[in-house]
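Tip: read the tokens left to right.
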């Protein structure tokens, strides 16, 4: 019985680590693409700088919310808040 509990705890830790790591990786890729498109749009039409900048920061903020949410859920899994 004790081995089963330790296996479940180990799998929970692996799952939480994957959740936090892949969430951060996805956000990093998304921010890289977003930044590249922002620079490309600014280079094509510099007169739209205020509009592009505000949309860029809105998109960056929403993209950064994803790893924060996955971090919170990962910590909750590690602490055992969710039953297995």
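Filled-in amino acids:
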């Amino acid at each position: 019985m004790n081995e089963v509990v330790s296996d479940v705890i180990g799998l929970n830790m692996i799952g939480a680590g994957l959740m936090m790591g892949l969430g951060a990786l996805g956000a990093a890729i998304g921010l890289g693409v977003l930044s590249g498109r922002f620079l490309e749009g600014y280079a094509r039409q510099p007169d739209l700088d205020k509009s592009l900048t505000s949309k860029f920061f809105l998109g960056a903020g929403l993209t950064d919310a994803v790893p924060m949410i996955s971090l919170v859920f990962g910590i909750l899994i590690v602490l055992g808040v969710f039953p297995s």
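The two ends are 14 Å apart (CA to CA). The longest helix spans residues 2-44.
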